[in-house]
Amino acid sequence: MSVTDDAIEAIKQMIVDGELRPGDRLPREADLADRLGLSRNSLREAVRALSLIHVLDVRRGDGTYVTSLEPSLLMDAMGFVVDFHRDDTVLQFLEARRVIEPAVTEMAARHMPDSDLEDLAKLLDSLGDRPTVDQLVENDLEFHRRIAGGCGNSVLASLLESLSGRTQRARTWRGITQEGVTERTLAEHRAILHALAARQPDVARAAATVHIAGVEQWLRQTLVE
Description:
β1 and β2 (63-66) form a beta hairpin. The protein is 74% helix and 4% strand. α1 crosses α3 (40-52), α2 packs across α3 (40-52) and α5 packs parallel to α10. The protein folds into two domains: 3-69, Winged helix-like DNA-binding domain superfamily/Winged helix DNA-binding domain (Arc Repressor Mutant, subunit A, Orthogonal Bundle); 83-224, GntR ligand-binding domain-like (Four Helix Bundle (Hemerythrin (Met), subunit A), Up-down Bundle), CATH 1.20.120.530. A two-stranded antiparallel sheet has the order 1-2. The chain has 225 residues and is mostly helical. It has helices at residues 3-16, 29-36, 40-52, 71-85, 89-111, 114-125, 133-149, 154-166, 168-177, 181-197, 201-224, and strands at 56-59, 63-66.
């Protein structure tokens, strides 16, 4: 379990124990980090993760509050995590991606028009060096969608888009909790693009395999923990 996961669990336990109730304001960051024995950076990442799934409400200039925790809100928030923490179905989707996507990427290296490859490069450049998790995942989804669309087989493209959408939440959570994932994702995307542009089908297939396997490996470890 990562340090950020530890911080998330600590805050969640405070809510479960009733120490933090709906509408309560969290203690000052420095005080809470010291009390929980965490770094302020880890605590900050945990707050960001919990605000993303609407457990916490960060009000700029005012503080961070526990949400109303209405049943419908909690169901949506917990669904975000339960998808892959308590159900390995998403792992099966990632396994399917690992089987299909490298082959599709290999086909794209042969068939994708040069103009589409240029647009793919612009898509990666548009992300910048420090994207948010949401921006990273959105760019990631579009990157793979375009490659699938350039493989020359609309059936495979449609199938892959369906599989990719089913793993979006897991990819978002990975972006929040795994250190260095943004840099790693961008580097792997660049490697795939380079192989496509060089018209190297075997290299493109290998780069895609490494990329998808990295997400799958992280998820397997998360489920074990």
